[in-house]
Amino acid sequence: MSTPGPVTAPTVPPVLAAAVPLAVVEREGTVESVHLGTVAVHRPGGTVTGSGDPDVAFLPRSALKPVQAVAMLRAGLDLDGELLALACASHSGEPGHVDGVRRILTGAGLDEADLDNTPDLPLGPAAAAAVRAAGAGPSPVLQNCSGKHAAMLAACVSAGWPTAGYRDPAHPLQRLVRETVAELTGVPVGVTTVDGCGAPLFGTTTAGLARAFATLATAAPGTAEGRVAAAVRAQPWWVGGTDRPVTRLAGAVPGLVAKDGAEGVLAAALPDGRAFAVTVLDGSPRPLPVVARAVLESLGAGSDALTAATRTDVLGHGTPVGAVRALL
């Protein structure tokens, strides 16, 4: 009879070891679930503190788009205002967003056939329902990252780089994006993978992401960083869409530069460089509004408007019976 071998304990991923409880879901006073994650808080002067370990690598997903847009401007992209905000967006696919993507492409002498992002239906439920009702289906221009991809193509045209293969990490544009990510985050890029839309995704840390947003928010007007910050803070609908959490958050805090990302990521910065980045370990976006409110209140940026914009009820038969509550 063989003797069982020793039991090997499972390896704990660093991102799990770095996490702490961020928020609880309460239903009539009973805790129903707990969201774990990591928060990095950047203060003027460069000090970064964290809940959990802010120096563990993670994938920032679409929260990195404003940094990618800085690289595009450095390559010669000629966009500002709403269309530059759209280049930073994970948009809802509402008609205005789709029209804006087409405007970016037309301005560069391109069309929808040049897009190489993943075909999809609009991210916004109402917009997706309208597409289905019209008998249409998924397409690249409707996908929530199409503004970024259109802007990447336009940047290639401006720089004289080939548009074919623009998603390849070895393409000059993506090499510039990687360099810009490392520069603004202050963290060497150790992980490169593929995002949901097909573009390269560069890993960083929550401390690095918070640092990058602080740099954007405090940049001088007219610089690439300052232009991105001005567009994102002035055009929150173009960054998200109607009733999107990131749009509500930015609208409630004057001067805020904010961007969310898939798998429970959010980064934001105030004009003086107070900034933060959050990653939720289970990938849920549900706790992000209340965690953002707690951090902003700790930074002295609380308000009634912020409380109203970030309220997250727990429903019972359609009626609030509890709430998501931050533990920070």
From TrEMBL:
Classification via Pfam families: Asparaginase_II (PF06089)
Superkingdom of origin organism: Bacteria
PANTHER family recorded: L-ASPARAGINASE, PUTATIVE (AFU_ORTHOLOGUE AFUA_3G11890)-RELATED (PTHR42110:SF1)
Protein name: L-asparaginase II
Organism: Pseudonocardia alni (Amycolata alni)
